[in-house]
Structures are given as C-alpha cells and as structure tokens.
C-alpha cells in the first residue's frame, strides 16, 4: 500500500480524535471561581488554611506513616522498576542467546 495514503489516513485519524475529544481541562491548583463576597467555588480561603493546618498536624502526629508511597516495596516505585527490568532483561537476554544460533545465524559465528 502507498505510504502517503497510510500517512494521510493516520493524520486524519489523529486530528479527528483531537477534534472530537472531550474538551475538559483540569484546574487542580484553583479552588473555583471567586464570587463577589470573596468566596470561592468550593470553600473559602480560611477553610482551606484550616484543612492544611489539620493535615500538617496529622503528619506531625504520625511521623512513621510516611507519604503513603512505598519506595522499596514490591508494589512501590523501585520495586516495580526492578521487577520490570528483570522481566524485560530476561526476555532480551533469551532473544540475544537464541539469535546467536539457529538456521539463519551467520556461518562461522558459533
């Protein structure tokens, strides 16, 4: 098949998906729209400061709890990286070793 046709179809698909996609934007750093009396969409600034103070007090009261992200556990960041490196590394090693021998290996290399 002609590569220009495939390229054009891919571009049309990408642009049409972008056009028809949901136009939702996340404004996570904002609390909402400010009203005429100073209130925000979700809660006031004083309520937000009170919640932040409460969170800080809870963290100071439980210093052993950590952030909640197990870094060295098997279900944590480094554990997942080590497991995926072991899996993909073993697959790559097996393919490398199998590629050195066989029907299509170059003559004189093993």
Quick recap:
The chain is 53% helix and 0% strand.
Characterize the structure shown.
Helices cover 53% and strands 0% of the residues. By secondary structure, the protein is mainly α. The chain has 2 domains: 1-66, no CATH class; 69-101. The protein starts with a helix and ends in an 11-residue tail after the last helix.
The structural domain count equals: 2
The total count of strands amounts to 0
Order of helices and strands: HHH
Count of helical stretches: 3
pLDDT < 50 stretches: none
Overall form: flat
- What share of the residues lie within helices? 40-55%
Q: Descriptors for this entry?
A:
2 domains, 110 residues, 53% helix, 0% strand, 3 helices, mainly alpha
What order do the helices and strands come in, and which of them pair?
Blueprint: H1 3-20, H2 45-61, H3 77-99
């Amino acid at each position: 098949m002609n590569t220009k046709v495939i390229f054009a179809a891919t571009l049309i698909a990408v642009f049409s998906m972008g056009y028809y996609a949901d136009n939702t934007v996340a404004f996570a750093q904002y609390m909402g729209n400010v009203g005429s009396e100073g209130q925000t969409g979700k809660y006031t600034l004083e309520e937000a400061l009170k919640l932040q103070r409460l969170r800080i007090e809870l963290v100071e009261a439980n210093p052993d709890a950590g952030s909640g992200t197990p870094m060295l556990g098997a279900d944590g960041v480094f554990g997942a990286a080590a497991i995926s490196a072991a899996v993909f590394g073993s697959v790559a090693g097996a393919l490398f070793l199998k590629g050195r021998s066989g029907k299509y290996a170059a003559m004189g290399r093993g």
